[in-house]
Amino acid sequence: MAKLERLAVKAKEAARMLSLSVQDFLFLVEQGALPPPIRLGKHTLWVVAEIEAVLTGSKIEPEAFVV
């Protein structure tokens, strides 16, 4: 069976992707240096493609990912 890729992750996983503590990650989000989260029901999640764009230095266009 093929492994499914996650489209969005919680703060802990997003911080891990960037090798940051959760506290530092949330601070950078608050300051606008990192992408803001999306809300999915009661969950606060970060779009993986946006986190990956930070890592590669590329810019993701808003219409490239539609929730």
Could you provide a short overview of the structure?
37% of the residues lie in helices and 15% in strands. It has helices at residues 11-17, 22-30, 48-56, and strands spanning 8-9, 38-40, 43-47.
Descriptive notes:
This is Helix-turn-helix domain-containing protein. With 67 residues, the protein is of the alpha+beta class. The chain has one domain (8-64). 37% of the residues lie in helices and 15% in strands. It has 3 helices and 3 strands. The chain has a 3-stranded antiparallel β-sheet. Strand 2 (38-40) and strand 3 (43-47) form a beta hairpin. Helix 1 (11-17) crosses helix 2. The longest helix has 9 residues, at 22-30. The chain starts with 7 loop residues before the first strand and ends in an 11-residue tail after the last helix.
Cα Rg: 12 Å
> What is the total tally of β strands?
3
Query: Separation of termini?
Result: 25 Å
- Low-pLDDT runs of 5+ residues are none
The helix content, as a percent range, equals: 25-40%
The shape, in one word, is: globular
Largest sheet: 3 strands, antiparallel
Order of helices and strands: EHHEEH
- Strand arrangement within the widest β-sheet reads 1-3-2
Tell me the β content.
5-15%
Q: What is the overall number of helices?
A: 3
Count of folded domains? 1
- Judged by helices, strands and strand pairing, the structural class is alpha+beta
Mean pLDDT: 89
Protein name: Helix-turn-helix domain-containing protein
Organism: bioreactor metagenome
